[in-house]
Amino acid sequence: MIFARIFGRLRRFCLCFIGMIYLVCTAHATNPTAVPANTNMPAVATPAAAATAIGAGNAGFDKSKVPFVSTPSRPGLFMLPPTTPGYYSFWDMITGNKREKPPVAPYAPFALLTTPAYDIDFRYLATPGHEKDIFDPVKRIQLGDDWLLSFGGSFWYRYTHETDSRLNTAGINNDFHLLRTRFHADLWYRDKVRLFAELLDARAFGAELSPLITDRNHADLLNLFADIKLGNVNNGPAYIRVGRQELMYGSQRLISTLDWVNTRRTFQGVKAFWRTPEWDVDAFWTRPMITEKGNVDNWDTQQNFFGLWATHKPKPGHLIDLYFLSLENDRNLTPANIARGNILQGNSHVHTLGGRFAGNFDNFLYELEGMYQFGRRSNLDISAFAVATGVGYRLPMPMNPQGWIRYDFASGDGSSTDGRSNTFNQLFPFGHYYMGFLDRIGRQNVHDINAQFTLHPMPWITFISQYHRFYLANERDYLYNAAGLATFRDVTGQSGSHIGDEVDFRLNLHVNRHQDVLVGYSKMWSGDFLKKQAPGVSPDLFYVQYNIRF
């Protein structure tokens, strides 16, 4: 039965992809001059820029710059990678391949990769003398003068052991296994039209507790969209994207693909985007997809998510994000929702206005982001805000040591009778990345004083350690987890505000350009609030993950 369902969905996947190809080909056959043939697309990657001459003038467009990809967003806790001579993978060390500088490669040397598959940059393959790879034959397959076709995918396996899983007071531990398989096809007609489709299959087994909704999704579409070029504006291409698509912006505190979970996060709708060396500008209207394990996923008809996001790159290493986002959630709140504190999950129109500055001056790292929310929630006026700030420094010494000191704040609400709602809504974040790897704390009603230290004992080994001290922003509001769901509350405020302290350790071994092994351990010690609300709970987390990409 399982294989029959998988085969059926694969068949539908192929039929949809072929159908889209037919429609696009038909459209261009009837109106071949709808979009200008010549482009002046700016390169965002050095390898692509170096290859400008290759294919330029071949049938009127430069294949070395296709497909155009967006520069990956820079997270808040970013690291400056090692650049000194050394072994940049375990395989390099085994084979004695000591490099003078990091290799040109499409994948980041880390198991987790939030970047969508359609923005992974293989344009360096157009550069003469590039390093050969076993999977090169399935990338950038030239079909005549006008078409480029690529295939790719990934697989991961993760073993997880949780103590006092999900802060449960029953003392239930949880051991489980996650499997995830992804496969994509990418077709370009010149630089005018793109068709992209990606299949995902996510499975979980062995758990003592019920799997989370994000753990399982059997053979469904993660991405299925078409890009159509609108033209060039001020020396930059403008496109419109229609269909199912992942979204990732800025620090990923508000919008992320959420690669930590087994299913990732995706949306369906339309996006227009414009790219230049100095500016990235996006405008989008979407609806989040609802994961259904045994059925075809559908979009959430009760939510609309739209916004405008602009990123200015004044000079290399520095950026400015400016954005306006709106989330309309027309789902009626039930008495059970209200009793559980999940008032942020429905019946609201939330608008978020924010900005961010981030970058590095040589070895000095910095970031500041502010977010203000307004609108209506359950007939209450919304007034909430969040701040994230930090400074870091890379020590100019062996093993590339770097440290960050940070402070994160998101407002809470202590009164339900004052006519205002002050709890910040974290929207669609990469919560796992910032507020401790245990995922017990979300960016809602929280103070987080934290520090991070990273080390590269070898260029292919990344060691990350974090310390967090968590407090409730308002003692009478809920404690919210990484998914934004309420867990515990003391309406009297007598349990205090100190949630607890958490330490995280993570070790990534970069085996080769395709494979990574990730090992992690996290532990939380309860503060006064958790001791009173969940006596005896002392959660920790251990996991081992293997990734392969092609």
Report on this model:
With 550 residues, this protein is mainly β. The chain has one domain (2-549): Beta Barrel (Porin), CATH 2.40.160.100. The protein has helices at residues 2-30, 46-50, 90-95, 335-340, 431-434, 528-533; strands at residues 141-143, 147-163, 174-189, 193-205, 217-233, 236-245, 267-275, 279-290, 298-299, 303-312, 318-329, 348-361, 364-377, 380-394, 402-410, 420-421, 446-455, 461-471, 479-480, 486-488, 498-512, 515-526, 540-549. The chain has an 18-stranded antiparallel barrel. Strands 19-20 form a two-stranded antiparallel ribbon. The longest helix has 29 residues, at 2-30. The radius of gyration is 24 Å and the shape is globular.
Per-chain topology:
Blueprint: H1 2-30, H2 46-50, H3 90-95, E1 141-143, E2 147-163, E3 174-189, E4 193-205, E5 217-233, E6 236-245, E7 267-275, E8 279-290, E9 298-299, E10 303-312, E11 318-329, H4 335-340, E12 348-361, E13 364-377, E14 380-394, E15 402-410, E16 420-421, H5 431-434, E17 446-455, E18 461-471, E19 479-480, E20 486-488, E21 498-512, E22 515-526, H6 528-533, E23 540-549
Parallel strand pairs: 14-16
Antiparallel strand pairs: 1-2, 2-3, 2-23, 3-4, 4-5, 5-6, 6-7, 7-8, 8-9, 8-10, 10-11, 11-12, 12-13, 13-14, 14-15, 15-17, 17-18, 18-21, 19-20, 21-22, 22-23
